[in-house]
Design a protein that fits this description.
The complex is a heterotrimer of chains A (about 400), B (about 625) and C (about 325). Chain A has 2 domains: about 1-75 and about 155-385, MetI-like (MetI-like fold, Orthogonal Bundle); about 105-150, no CATH class. Helix content of chain A is about 60%, strand content about 5%. Chain A has helices at about 5-25, 30-40, 40-60, 95, 100-105, 155-190, 190-205, 210-220, 245-275, 275-285, 290-325, 335-345, 355-385; strands at about 1-5, 65-70, 85-90, 120-125, 130-135, 240. Chain A has a 4-stranded mixed β-sheet with strand order 3-2-1-6. Chain A has a two-stranded antiparallel ribbon with strand order 4-5. In chain A, a hairpin with a 5-residue loop joins strand 4 (about 120-125) and strand 5 (about 130-135). In chain A, helix 3 packs across helix 6 (about 155-190), helix 6 (about 155-190) runs parallel beside helix 9 (about 245-275) and helix 12 packs antiparallel against helix 13. Chain A is elongated. In chain A, about 50% of the residues are buried. Chain B contains 22 helices and 22 strands. The radius of gyration of chain C is 25 Å and the shape is globular. The chains are: A alpha+beta (about 400), B alpha/beta (about 625), C mainly alpha (about 325). The interface between A and C is large, with 44 and 49 residues.
Chain lengths: ~400, ~625, ~325
Amino acid sequence: MPVILATDLIVYFLAAAIVYFAFSVMGEGIAARAWAGIRTNRLALVCMAVLFVYFSIALLDSVRYRDRVFDDSGRHALTEKGEAIYSPQALSLLDRALSDLRTNTEKSYSAPFARYLFTKESVELPNGEAVRDYPAMKHPGAHWLGTDKVGNDVLFSAIKGVRTAIVIGAGTTLIMVPFAIFFGVIAGYYGGLIDDIVQYIYTTLASIPGVLLIVAFMLLFGTSGYQGGLISQSQISLSFFVLNERLFWLALILGITSWTDLCRLIRGETLKLRELEYVQASRAFGVSKPGIIARHIVPNVMHLVLITFVLQFSGLVLAEAILSYIGIGVGPQMGSWGNMINTARLELSRDPIVWWNLFAAFVFMFSLVLPANIFGDAVRDALDPRLRTGKGWH
Amino acid sequence: MTPILKVNNLKTYFKTSSGLAKAVDGVSFEIPKGGTFALVGESGSGKSITALSIIQLVPEPAGYIAGGEVILNGTDIVPLDERKKREIRGNKISMIFQEPMTSLNPVFTIGDQVMEAIVLHQDKSRTEAKRAAIEMLDKVQLPDPERLFNEYPHRLSGGQRQRVMIAMALACKPDLLIADEPTTALDVTIQEEILKLIREMKAQTGTAILLITHNMALVYQNADVVGVMYAGKLVEVAPGKALFRNPMHPYTVKLLRSIPGHEKRGKALDTIAGTVPPATSYPKGCHFAGRCPREMEGCAMIEPPLTEWAPGHQAACHLYDAAFMSQPHSRPLRQEPDILPPLTVPPAEREALLEVKGLKTWYPIKKGVLKRTVGFVKAVDGIDIDVKKGSTLALVGESGCGKTTAGKSILQLIRPTAGEIVFKGRDLSSLKERELKSHRSLLQIIFQDPYSSLNPRLTVRETIEEGLKAVRPGMKREERIEKVASVMERVGLSPEMMARYPHEFSGGQRQRIGIARALAVDPEFIVCDEAVSALDVSVQAQILNLLKSIQRDFGLSFLFITHDLSVVEYIADEVAVMYAGKIVERAPTAEIFSNPKNDYTKKLLSAVPRIDERLVSGWRLPGHDILKQD
Amino acid sequence: MLSYIIRRILYAIPIIIGVNVLTALLFFYVNKPDDMARKILGEKNVTPAAIENWKRDHGYNLPSFVNTEEEGVKRVTETIFFQKSVPLLWFDFGRSDRNNIDIGREIKTRMWPSLAISLPMFTAGLVINLFLAMMLAYYRATYIDIWGVVLAVVLMSVSTLFYIIGGQYILGKILRLFPISGYDTGLHAAKFLVLPVIIGIIASIGVGVRFYRTVFLEEINKDHIRTARAKGLTEGRVLFKHALKNAMIPVLTNVVVSIPFLFYGSLIMETFFAIPGLGNFTIDAIQSQDFAIVRSMVYLGSILYIIGLILTDISYTLVDPRVRFE
């Protein structure tokens, strides 16, 4: 039985967008221009590959279904009415592919590649005597990044954080882009009262400290949503869809707090475009305002959208960690690097210290954010030569 | 006498993504003390880079001086270290630039900026430097220099800012002043004042001047010696008068013959086939070879040296080289006729197609806390004009006089405040947007900037089609494509280029696309808003020829908005001179140029630099006499 | 000039009202006082009577926006919105939901520790960032610049959390240079502030240097810089005199844009370093779900931001003569 979370739709949409861009690099649009700038930049290509790997993990972790429950006799269990019973656990393709990592848990902490647990316990020797020693692990050497307090594999937790990061980093912008374009363009093109209203809305929103708006919103909406882990029947609508999902609310509110910058940019660009001669020519033909907006304005602000998209990505990934750290991010059941850092903080004060949780979160985050930053710069340079630095000839 | 400046085989290259661009590719000339040398050429010829190379300010790290010498007072300054170069800059050599509006630092006062060079290069205290600066401001004839000293640049007009630039440049009494298109961004009346100032300052200080410009008439009036640059090379160097009396290089001849003017009325302007080769891939021989009407075999392979063929008159062309001509390989590849074909438009009809009565377009000025309207900018303040069927009315005036607003108001792109615009008996200004729609196709517009006039995201077909879709929604796709193809052919573009995007075209081709876009909807009246002003003169000639021929073929009426009076003389039937929102004089073209009545018109016309029209008949391609015998 | 400033302040009024209404909608309409009471009292042992009691005690026993039971002006005034939100306009923050503390007084005492940490972090950070950015711009297109930018990108790719945790661990725990966290009154606070300030600055270098470098480079490519060079000025003078003063204009905007970010940054800084400032106060309120405090802080933050915007506009007139005289 498939289960689709609201944020899964974001990931699917993102996948569709990537496929679309991959095909449209042959054309003349922004994808082609961006690609022309990137293809000669080897570093940017490497970064693109890394980002692609991360995205693939997120995609695998966004296709999920519930298995049927077996009864004692090993057959599919049925309700009294004869309906199939499904497990409340919706495992993704990623969970299934990494089922060894997921299920090979230990009792508690163990260091990377360790064969014995990290803390001494009373161990019963074969002769029945009990001594305090490091107990042997169930899966010695199998945990490349060690295990956490409850014995879960740290590498697996870190991988599970990928989807959250991608959803927040990319999904947030996806959610807000339509609003930013719509309001920015109509404010810039129609001017007058519409412009005043749009400007009023975004100035008001921008003046509220983003993080507190997020806090307020999450306190109000986020608490009842699906937070990872088991799904209760009441959270599922249409028999397979989960709208009320904490991660989705988080992406939504991050979108609400971050659309104003893009909207302002688009408005400014529209003001410029409106006076351009090809728009005037179009008006001289009597083309309607919506027609002009669709043909001449929107396609010519899309580069701003793409630039914002790639440049905001890394900032949002970093923000997610901080929000989860404060306790208003994704729920504790949802894989998240912020959650890992949060628990790791106390582990550092142990003696000897437990460093691998923090290390794993650091490595995974850094190797997503750094390529994202470099790739973002490359895209911006390709699309907005004004910002390119070394001034050449003509 | 040793020259102040001697440039010897100067080469300045740029590293670009498409290879090494040889912006300046072996240029040699010299300027004597107190002389004026004009470097003239079309955009991309390398004249500005030559100037920057002389003052040692080539934009690094992409550009660098690859070879040659810049000898100032006997010393080659290219190998000097940066400290020594700085002592020369602003002191021995100074420079003024094209854009006075952006060339001054907005956050420092005029006085501060003028003083800076004085304090730097001369051993003067700040009070002495201040006195010297105020003196310089006075010398460049700025009003109230004491007050101006503490003023910020944004309070000054373009002309005044250029005066400040000149004051700054001449403050240290340099040996050489480089003026890079010093008046291109200015109105023609201001241009005359600035050039006069430069001439006077030269007379006072004895500074040699390197004048860089694209304007041939300006060169004619201001230069002692002229160097014509083409594609990184000097193709001809001659004393000013000699060059205009007897141009030798085919490029110079073609360039001169493409300049519009009243002598050429009724004839097509000369044009140059093809486009300038990119600086990354010049031919081995003569850079002009591929476009030359007199190209011979071998021209593209063997480089013609700049040789003195007459006293002081140098040209780089094999046509004058008897030794080359007698070589077996040098057979003519092309022999273009020397005469310009006639291009006449039938006389206009008597009835007016468009009548504008009392047109006013005002913009409110809002001030104060509550943004109340305290007054109006009267951009267009009651003008009356009429355009006869099949004729061209030129609306001329300087920047800010309201001519563009007037054009857009007539087309209802800006809704006028008052007045009637009667087109074929209907007042357009009284029509609602929906009623206007049926008239839109009859009134079209062609713009100035070939770059911003086309949407970079649309193919040529989509651009031209847009009007058809809007005006004739019932038209079938095939019919539309057929129509697009036919107008493209009409404006001289191959219909095969339909699927291409604007960036694949040159400026001139883009302008053709803009014309095709307007033509596609079968208009009767076209506003040409500075339609040829942004183009190089040889491209401008092609577009003017095209405009005239479509006028002839379709019986179109033009409202030609421009500041360029030589274009007006060439193309217009009638002229309306606009000043501060009003029309100050209106008359047939010949009459207004021969006998202007209004004071402003007189001032405007006398400020336009002109080449003596008697010289025009002497501009003939080399070898024309041989051709005649064939 | 004066009329310009007055106009800017008048423009702020509808925005302040907008923020007020928006927060009221969010806190009183979307989130009903009943839910609030249930959360505060705990999900389990809630009786309708207990909720009513709590609402009466905390002044939430009124309709949200319109009181239909009252007549005249009281229809509007006898509402939660008027009682709770409107007083914010004159900075009457009321009392907290949980411990009934005076929020206004709390803000007054707690803003000093916040300022003690954010002010040095902000000013020293700005100076260091500007200086480094100018160095990179001076050495533009050399290896110093290229590697400097690479380093900046690497630095900005690390989460602030790692800087804090790493800094506390290395500087505080291993090297024992500074106390890891805590606060003291008066000048004794200084020793507790050094560590967070250093960490805060390091965390800001990546983003800051990169941004200011772009600003400088944009200025360096302007026409008037070419004029300055043509005068024979040294590259240093071109950069530090001509480019810098122009660059101050975009820098100013960014400085003010940073004000809400300061607020944001000190949120985690203060919890990590146990500094009893507003950030800490807010975090505590978030964790105990005290909506009155969160609402007050949202409102206060907006006011600070709006003041920042007005100050930017005024500061423009000091740097940019084109604005000064219009």
